Amino acid sequence: MLEENEPLLLRDDAEGIVRLTLNRPQARNALSRELMSALQAELERIGEDAGARVVVLAAAGPAFCAGHDLREIRENTGRDFYEALFAQCSALMQSIVRLPQPVIAEVGGIATAAGCQLVASCDLAVAAEGARFATPGVNIGLFCSTPMVALSRNVGRKQAMEMLLLGELMDAATALRFGLVNRVVPADRLGREVASMAGTIAAKSPLTLKIGKEAFYRQLEQPLDEAYAYASRVMTENMLARDAAEGIEAFLEKRPPVWSGA
């Protein structure tokens, strides 16, 4: 059981990798307003942290995240509360997308509703073989409309509608086939797989990662010709950076690059 004075969110930093752990295992890491506030605040700190290269989002206990805290919702009714709740959650998901550093979801258990949205909002996701995913709001008379935004930007339309309309649990292999996760590994390899992926990313130029992540999401929303024009401008600016010159020199000289972050 979680002690009353134990934080809802844990942070651990090592070699440029920031590991954030949702720490409400007794509530299946449901996104209470307090937990969302803690995660939002930590993401803002990470965004300003020059030493942070990549973020891993994990969870304590057998569940990754069961979505919104239904007990909290039942105890707080009315339009004002609902509007504030969903605005807060939407802002949190966008903060993950807009964070300069890449974010990897380490999914060891169930991820449903807003928990599935959380996975979809991360840049990469690795799941244990026993992980399960669902957007089951339709089963309780509440269509998963906000999870739909992130979900529909990760998987195909037919696959997204299948999840949203049926509300059924989906196994990790199907999530991989749908494109919701990048890799599926045995549970005992999950941490090592994510650490390896994070380490590979952390070794890259932080400036390049920031430029690339921002450009990726911006071009997705643009028509093809505008996307190419925008990406060409981004490439030009990237080429003028010191890290690009260092990377090219290091490649030609057959040595590891030394990144300056500029």
From TrEMBL:
InterPro entries: ClpP/crotonase-like_dom_sf, Enoyl-CoA_hydra/iso, Enoyl-CoA_hydra_C, Mitochondrial_ECH-domain
Keywords assigned by UniProt, alphabetized: Fatty acid metabolism, Lipid metabolism, Lyase, Transit peptide
Record carries keyword Lyase: yes
Gene3D superfamilies reported in the protein's UniProt record: 2-enoyl-CoA Hydratase, Chain A, domain 1 (3.90.226.10), Lyase 2-enoyl-coa Hydratase, Chain A, domain 2 (1.10.12.10)
UniProt keyword Nucleotidyltransferase, yes or no: no
Matches recorded under Pfam families: ECH_1
Any GO BP: fatty acid metabolic process
GO MF terms held by the record: hydro-lyase activity
Family note: Belongs to the enoyl-CoA hydratase/isomerase family.
Function noted in UniProt: May play a role in fatty acid biosynthesis and insulin sensitivity.
Name of the protein this chain belongs to: Enoyl-CoA hydratase domain-containing protein 3, mitochondrial
UniProt source species: Marinimicrococcus flavescens
